[in-house]
């Protein structure tokens, strides 16, 4: 039987370090890294100005991304997806990408508290001024309302980091 790649994806509140950890993991695993932010900004330049815009365009790219990731996994290459897995529905979609083709998956849960996330958001908005409009405490509070802690009952292979490592 052909060896399939493993799909790695992330869960963590805004500012938990999902993008940083995804880049690090892709390097460690010698995996293909896919960033939702990169796809969206390339496909829809200057069109995402609100959270609602993000949601609309995010849904539009999912079928293409799914097929693309399955093709990569099917040739035995690992994929690290810097796409949010912060709700049960998002995680269901991500797990489905792997399970539909009998590939394995790993959810990396960055379980940081509010203060840790807000510190990282403040730092990021200084380092990346183009993100300052989105990287606010108000946006953190808004987005965190949708966050759902991952549960083993979802059929997930969870690797958890508390940020204190």
Automatic annotation (TrEMBL):
GO terms for biological process: cell division. It holds the Pfam family AAA_33. Keywords: Cell cycle, Cell division. InterPro entries: P-loop_NTPase. The keyword Cell cycle applies. This is Cell division protein ZipA. It comes from Ureibacillus sinduriensis BLB-1 = JCM 15800.
